[in-house]
């Protein structure tokens, strides 16, 4: 699936900033990398709390467009007041994105009262860094899933047995840290573009709209894979996915090709 293996986040940001694609990843000064890391982990801890407490409650408005407009609004604030707003703006935009991801998950048949399904919503933030220099063996869709599998399973089991007792539980902190490591790459790219002089409120809104759009695309692909796994089994879907990648070579796989598996009685 093209969006899972070759996300176009960098290209989107480069277009917004008017900068060459290869420069975007290098715009963020090393001095603020610590701020980005702390803000990313804070945002992921907030996302985990939301996933385990209120995602099961269906919101009053469920439109992807409205989520995007709300995210653009928070981006406008960030673009106006600059990097100092990141520790506040990032958790807000991440929460809005998670709400949108949850609606996509419901549409694909996920039961968000199941801790594993709710955590799968947060897992989306670990996907699609868009960094071409990352080892493909470590950054591919199934490799990311494998890297997070143990922490995801332990967190889901802990919550099923004890309930959600707060994001301060060690297992939740560990999971948030693992996801934040990958999420922080995208946040750094976002911050880099917003740091471009005169980008301002309008540019900040556009960056956050692209930020939302990026994760909505990833969520649709991620939960399509999960839905197909429920129908055909993980081994069959993984083999189909690998076959698509092999046929495509270096070209991105097609989402439609994976969805072309024979029907098993449920809409695909």
Which secondary structure elements does this structure contain, and how are they paired or packed?
Blueprint: H1 2-5, H2 9-17, H3 21-24, H4 33-53, H5 64-81, H6 86-107, H7 115-123, H8 136-139, H9 141-162, H10 170-194, H11 200-232, H12 234-248, H13 255-258
Helix pairs in contact: 2-10, 2-11, 4-6, 4-7, 4-10, 5-6, 5-11, 6-7, 6-11, 7-9, 9-10, 11-12
Mean pLDDT: 76
Report how far apart the termini are: 15 Å
Query: Please, how many helices?
Result: 13
Number of extended strands: 0
Q: Specify Rg, calculated over alpha carbons.
A: 18 Å
Describe this entry's structure for a reader.
The protein is mainly α. Helix content is 71%, strand content 0%. It is built from 13 helices and no strands. Mean pLDDT is 76; it is low at 250-259 and 262-268.
